[in-house]
Amino acid sequence: MHTCPVFDWEAAWHAALYGPSGFFARGEKPSAHFRTSPLVGPELAVALVELLSRVDAALGFPPVVDFVDVGAGGGELAFAVRSLATGSLAARLRVTAVELGPPVELPGVRWTSAVPECVGLLVGHEWLDSIPCPVVTGPSSDPWITRWWPSLADGAQAEVGAPRDAAWAAAVASVRGAALAVDYGHLVSSRRFTLTGYRAGRQVPVVFDGSCDITAHVALDACAAAAGGDRVLVSQRDALAALGLTGTVSGSGWEWLESAARAGRIAELRDPAGLGSFGWLLHGNGIPVSSLLPPLPPWCPDPASFPEL
Q1: What is the DSSP string of the chain?
Q2: Quick one: which of 37, 111, 248, 267 has the most CB atoms within 10 Å?
Q3: DSSP-assigned beta bridge partners for residue 129
Q4: Torsion angle defined by CA atoms of residues 10, 13, 14 and 19, in that order, rounded to the nearest 10 degrees
Q5: pLDDT tens digits, residue range 9-47?
Q6: Separation of alpha carbons 154 and 208, rounded Å
Q7: What is the CATH number of domain 9-237+278-298?
Q8: CA dihedral in degrees (242, 248, 250, 255; nearest 10)?
Q9: What tens digit of pLDDT does each residue of 145-186 get?
Q10: CB-CB neighbours of 39 under 10 Å
């Protein structure tokens, strides 16, 4: 009796992105295919420099302080943080971009393919959504599904987030200071199959031939539990305001125009129907999260933000 082989979603997804002819392995950068917060303007980097400054102070101003950008893409965020740091922080700052694809030569940014041990702030900005996962069809006895997707209906598909949980737990363990994951995602109360593709700025059906980026929403609550420790999960909208980005307009003439342009960019980053709905999962490792952010409302993602194909 012959049986059809079971399709290995995780292996196919990994090969499509990182194999010899994979989307990222051949040098494609996210900036060419979809708009992300670092591409809006310098404001996200401004907020992360402020967060890094708070981490630095909580650590007691070590001789070297790290900013590690995991899943760095074209290095836009890493380079912006390097450029915006000033004073003592700039003098002690070491910026590392972690990326499996070909590096981009940027002043003051070193590149590596593995998450290093570091002292400072590690950021995974839209990194976890690009980590391939197994896909199962309900009903499923997979232990991750049992714990984190208990409402999976018969015949429905689900991404098993265990590889992302493991990757994030390892990243948090690698840093003394703080680790921040910024991503679109969902909670156990609102799970939904979200595997999709992007190519040249458009959402496209998933194909595993290396021609498109393949991504899925992140179960950030599961990642939080896997890494453990002192942590908060809040919205990008609230986190940016807590770090000083509120988008007020002031001045006159050119100063007013520049202020208005900046306010427009901040409004895009904090839009509750867009980038502002991203989750910020912040862990403290050796320092309290309360020294980095004030108490904020818990993250409540909008299911309407899920992709439709």
Answers
A1: ---PPPP-HHHHHHHHHHSTT-TTTTT--GGGTS--HHHH-THHHHHHHHHHHHHHHHTT--SSEEEEEET-TTSHHHHHHHHH--HHHHHHEEEEEE-SS-----TTEEEESSPPPEEEEEEEET-GGGS---EEESS---HHHHHH-TTPPTT-EEE--HHHHHHHHHHHHTEEEEEEEEE-EE-GGG-----EEEETTEEE---SSSSSEEE--EEHHHHHHHH-SEEEEEEHHHHHHHTT-------SHHHHHHHHHHHHHHHHHT-TTTGGG-EEEEEEESS-GGGTS---PPP---GGGS---
A2: 37
A3: none
A4: 140
A5: 999 999 999 999 899 887 776 666 666 788 888 999 999
A6: 25
A7: 3.40.50.12710
A8: 90
A9: 999 999 999 999 999 999 999 999 999 999 999 999 999 999
A10: 14
- What are phi and psi for residue 243, nearest 5 degrees? -100, 10
**Contact assessment for residue 123 and residue 69, using Cβ atoms and an 8 Å cutoff:** yes
For 175-190, what is the HEC assignment?
Answer: EEEEEEEEECEECHHH
Identify the residue whose tokens are 């109360």.
189
3-state SS string for 54-86? HHHHHCCCCCCEEEEEECCCCCHHHHHHHHHCC
Torsion of CA 294, 247, 299, 212, to 10 degrees: -130
Segments making up each domain of the chain, as ranges: 9-237+278-298
Cα–Cα distance measured from residue 293 to residue 272, given in angstroms and rounded to the nearest whole number: 19
* Two tokens, residue 179: 């680790």
Token pair 């609102």: residue:
190
Q: In what order do the strands lie in the sheet with 196-199?
A: 202-204, 196-199, 213-215
